Amino acid sequence: MSEDKQTPGTGTSGPQPEEIRFFGTTWVDHSAHYGLRRAGLAVGALAAAVAGAFVLRFAYQGLQVAAVGGIVNTLVILMFAICSAIAFTKTWEGFGRRPADQAREDSLKSLKAIGFIGVLLAYALRCLMEAPGEKLRRAEYETARTRYEKRRGTRTGNPAARKKPKRS
Q1: For 53-108, what is each residue's pLDDT tens digit?
Q2: CA 68/CA 61 separation, integer angstroms
Q3: CA distances from 74 to 29, 78, 80, 161 (A)
Q4: Is-contact 122 91, C-beta < 8 A?
Q5: 117, 135, 134, 136: which is closest to 45 by C-alpha?
Q6: Euclidean distance between CA atoms 168 and 123, whole angstroms
Q7: Cα–Cα distance between 18 and 85 in angstroms, integer?
């Protein structure tokens, strides 16, 4: 989030809200069909999760046709279940706080890709409550606005326009 950017066309300065994917800055005042967008994204994420589950089912059927054995089938199911659960948890936590260690988050990308169903379910559930990440960004934006207003309130005007005391 930028501290003192000029808002295009308004001429006001101050902190600007950070954009959220698919929502822009409409999360601030819930304008521009915000509710419809949230509902649409929730349905879309659920549909993508269902489609992904069908793809995984077809992959599992391919393993059965190949007759690779019961242990491999069990390991594949466990891998996708565990990765989906971890991906769901990490994605859900990511909506509420910034990552403390970005390198760790980057190392989880492959796990989240394998557990993509968990990521999609977390996104869909979060869309039912708010725009994903809205609570975090709102808290950061309000803090920045408060700091900005406090800084602006302590100023008494243009220091260059002040009259200088005459020396005798």
Answers
A1: 999 999 888 888 888 788 888 898 999 999 999 999 999 998 888 888 888 888 88
A2: 11
A3: 48, 6, 10, 77
A4: yes
A5: 117
A6: 71
A7: 29
Looking at the DSSP bridge assignments, the partners of residue 24 are 20
What is the enclosing helix (H) or strand (E) of 14? strand 13-14
The residue length of the chain stands at 168
In this prediction the pTM is: 0.76
* Collapsed DSSP state (helix, strand, coil) of residue 25: coil
* C-alpha span between 131 and 24 (Å, rounded): 10
Closest CA to 87 of 56, 111, 52: 111
Distance separating alpha carbons of residues 37 and 131, to the nearest angstrom: 9
Count Cβ neighbours within 10 Å for each residue of 112-127 and write b for 16 or more, e otherwise.
bebbbbbbbbbbbbbb
**Cβ–Cβ under 8 Å, residues 46 and 120:** yes
Tell me the sheet residues that pair with 6.
Answer: 13
The number of beta carbons lying within 10 Å of the beta carbon of residue 100 is 7
Rounded to whole angstroms, the Cα distance separating 25 from 137 reads 10
DSSP helix/strand/coil, 29:
coil
Structure tokens at 161: 């326009």
